Amino acid sequence: MSFLNNYAYYIGAFGLIFIGLYIILVKHNLIKVIVGLGILDTGVNLFLISVGYITKGTAPIFSRPGIYSERMVDPVPQALVLTAIVIGVAVLALALSLAIRLYQHYGTLNLRKIREQKW
Amino acid sequence: MVNPVLLIAVPLGLAFAIPLFALFWKDAAKYISPVALGFNLVVSLLLLPKVLENPIIVSIGGWQPPFCINLVAGPVGVLFSTIIALVGLLVSIYALDYIKEGATEKYHMLYLLLLTGATGVVLTGDIFNLFVFFEILCISSYALVAYLRDKAGIESAVKYLIQGAVGSSLLLIGIGLLYGQFGTLNMADIARNIKSVSSISVFVPMVLIITGFGVESAIFPLNAWLPDAHSSAPSSISAILSGIAIEVGLYAVSRVVFTIFGASGILPFLALLGILTLLVGEMCALSQNNIKRMLAYSSIGQIGLILFALAIATSYGVTGGLFQLISHTLSKALLFLAAGYMIYRAGSPDISALEGIGKKMPLTCLAFTIGAFSLVGLPPFVGFPSKFLIVRAALATGEAIFTVLIGLALLGTVIEGAYFFRVVQVLYFKGGKVNPGRKEAPVTALIPMFIFVVLIIVVGIYPKLITDVLNSAASELLSRTEYIKAVLDSIL
Description:
The complex is a heterodimer. By secondary structure, chain A is mainly alpha-helical.
């Protein structure tokens, strides 16, 4: 069980990443694909957070007495994740607005039926 | 001394100011992008002679690298930012008249954001910052592909967005893996810690990062989005996507391979992928009836050739690759700009609808012809010296694999010649059923095309003009230790 304890976050993160990729590759409905993108994003963010996480760690505030650097959580991945979340939100919002337009044009969200352009 | 930060800060600030200006004066929007890009061009040209001697390292926030986000304005970065500003300026002049429908202020804002993202990618020295600027570039290009809101545009934007978003996620996983091992995001600091790529813990992030950038730079198995996106976007955007966006992706790939990982082992594989990309692109282009789709496939082919030249990884090879990159940027931007008004006047993007249009729009068609000849590699245009350099570099390596591959590349060039000459023949030597009403493109479109033509011919006749810059850019890409030393001077 110690393996699970040590790597629980990584297992969860890569689980979410693979679920997201699976949905994007297999599902036909554009909304489901966008949900897949969201899950993929969440998995990547969880992975980034867990890179710098320490169990029962504290915030890295050096001015407060009684806190040592070994117990501090790495703040850099958290800053990265904030940025990555914002980027993810922008992509999802754009994807959803494109989905609305796509439905207006084709009357369907099934990506297998939308095949105007081919190689 | 001009600060390279201005190259990013000024267009970014002006891009977000565009909707504000547009509240008071609707036409202000379209004049802001030329102003911002003109400023960038001047600053880049001022910086260029300085960075040839010493790269300028800008530390943001008052910390020394690797503890801050830093910009590295070396020969490569400033060379690219000059090209981005130049092509961006000319295309934004073209767009003054070309973009009439829809929410024009949003077009101009996204356009400026796209070019800001591209400039940021080539100047930054921090790998996460690279990712952020890359996303700025990608998100604005997804939106701009769908700008016309027609069936084809929306469909290709959806495809582009899904593939691009998956690519970006892979890229972010790669960055996370690197941070987990080395505890730093500074590219020079990561490079300092990587001694070889043979261990699996370095190889996996490298593959993830190259795949992530490979989607945007349209390397062969990852380029399914490109022909749709480049052919459905407005022509001015196609010119930027083909001329700037994929080149910036290729820059990122080469920066990762050469500087961060120093991975000489995968170069033959990349050369092979490059030639595959070239052949696939050229073969598909040959069978197209839509002129913009043909140009889009031809971009895939050219990207393959540039990737091949960069993967030769000798001083000649990288110089040739960068030269070919510039020649492709100038020629393909010109081709898309000319094709934009040809399609607009003919009313259809089919090549058959363009029969005899050369007599009605002589200047536009002449520009198209010059762009096509330059891309094929005929002297005295810029495509000739660049392709010549690549062939010479491939033969100079003396290795059998590069000799065979350059033979295949020349085969690709022959195919390229076949479809471009076919179009040129249709433009001038066919027809009879031409409507009398067609006229020349407006002057705001002719001026940028004329400048592109002049650049193509001048650099083609006198390549020495830019070879100094290209040589030092190539040596920056190839000498990893110099880059590390320049950035981390204070702590080493």
